Amino acid sequence: METIDPALLLSAYAQGLFPMADAADDPSVHWVEPRLRAILPLDGFRLSRSLKKVILGERFHVTTDRAFADMVALCAEPAADRPTTWINPVIKASYDRLFRLGHAHSVECWQSGALVGGLYGVTLGRAFFGESMVSRTRDASKVALAHLVARLRAGGWQLLDCQFITPHLETLGAIEIPQADYLRRLYSVLAGGAGTTGGAALGAGAGAAGLPSPPFVAGDWGALDALGAAGAADGRATGSPPGYVIAQLLTNTS
């Protein structure tokens, strides 16, 4: 299966680019650099009362990196509200390679043993690039995103890229910024800068030196799991910390 070289793919992300196909059955891939970029400030996630109730009630069994390929495949499937997607076989194979190299992650939501929603994305340094999220039942993608934000905060991430704004993402706290501002944030994060989790734009000089060079200081994807150790000890392990841990993290930072 043809794939995008992992080094090329990560270099593109470091420069604010990402690949897409025009349709799931289109064999070609093109690079995208939006004029306006959606991000979700990690201290600005909107935990509504109803979503908090769902998280505390643990309606979903939430895991991470347990079914990465299945999650990408679910995101690629057509649905009534999304008859086609941009995830073609080249995209699937390329991100599977990134996952095996430790540069991609998934968050999965399960009900009765069935995968009913979640998300996946790419990680580089302390930036996480959300690629796609999906719900096959109500609230599944919201719960997955809540778990992701909690995990990124616990692990020291500083930027959550959402690519394009949607009404759904806006309700959860996503904002839209010019691509130039996004690049300043991204370069600052990759260079080891701080203060990029909030909604305020960085100063005009941030990132002026250009694209930082690797290696980049990485976030700790597993840091959140330690916070759920007490839940695991009493037999409530779910593959991700208990809902009350997630809700507490998000409540304290919203």
Kindly describe this structure.
With 254 residues, this protein is an alpha+beta fold. It contains ten helices and nine strands. The protein has a seven-stranded mixed β-sheet with strand order 4-5-6-7-8-3-9, with helices on both faces. Strand 6 and strand 7 form a beta hairpin. Helix 2 packs antiparallel against helix 10 and helix 3 packs antiparallel against helix 4. The longest helix is centred in the middle third of the chain and has 16 residues. The radius of gyration is 17 Å and the shape is globular. The termini are far apart.
From the spread of the alpha carbons, the general shape counts as globular
Largest sheet: 7 strands, mixed
Q: Strand sequence of the main sheet, in spatial order?
A: 4-5-6-7-8-3-9
The portion of residues forming beta strands comes to: 15-25%
Structural class: alpha+beta
Series of secondary-structure elements, N-terminal to C-terminal: HEEEHEHHEEEHEHEHHHH
Termini distance? Answer: 43 Å
Helix amount? 25-40%
Radius of gyration: 17 Å
Mean pLDDT: 88
- Count of extended strands: 9
What's the number of helices? Answer: 10
List low-confidence stretches: 195-209, 230-238
